[in-house]
Amino acid sequence: AIMSIVRSVKDMPFLLYHLALVQVLVWVGNTAWNNYGAQWFANVVFEGDQHAPEGSPQRIAYGHGVAAFSTGGQFKSGLQLISSLTLMAILLKTTIRPRLVYAPCIFLGGAADFLAAFAVGTSGVFAIVCMAVSTMPETGSFAIPFGLVAILNKHAEEEGKQVSTALQMALLNCCITVGQQICTVSLAALEASLPLETALMWVMILAGIAHTLAGFGALSLNDKPPAPTIEDERAFEQQPSTEC
């Protein structure tokens, strides 16, 4: 069983490893919002302090930041639902290649990251907008990479290689965890030498860089449909003609 897994990993096409790298980078950026968005709202945007005395301006500002984060989460969920349905419709009803759908989603997330780091300042409304838009890479990462696994399997079958859909899905899921851990470790390292507010700003910059690299990586994915096999051509030739 172990040797079978080793052979499956060895025979995986390059496209899967390319896609895995993109997935890691996407989730480095996604984790900045998912894990540290509340702290960014409360400590950076609203300049609050959880440990300030009860009733102090900083403690009140912290509460306002948490409330704004909650509002942003609601808008983010709504946009995620709409964008998920839109992506499904585009992929099913049009001939647009998946990479040309995935890359813009990632770039939108990168734009939200950089705006959060350099432009939001203390604007709660602007921060909510950025948080809502930050859902686009996450939505794309759930909808598109796993769908491309079908294309990978078709390529592998044509080359006579062993196909393991479950193993490929597991690899993509592991990439999510790797991206999350990179972001978490990065923030911990930054906090060791920087104040929390500054460290959070640098994490947003890291997220923007990761999403930008992932966007260009997605653009260069080789997601062309597999070429017709000899068997497919023969089957087509053997179809009865409908011409009179």
UniProtKB/TrEMBL annotation:
Chief site of localization: membrane
Sequence intervals crossing the membrane: 12-33, 77-93, 199-221
Keywords: Membrane, Transmembrane, Transmembrane helix, Transport
GO molecular function: sucrose:proton symporter activity
Any single Gene Ontology cellular-component annotation: membrane
Recorded superkingdom: Eukaryota
Bilayer disposition of the protein: Multi-pass membrane protein
Subcellular location: Membrane
Protein name in UniProt: ADP,ATP carrier protein
Origin species: Polarella glacialis
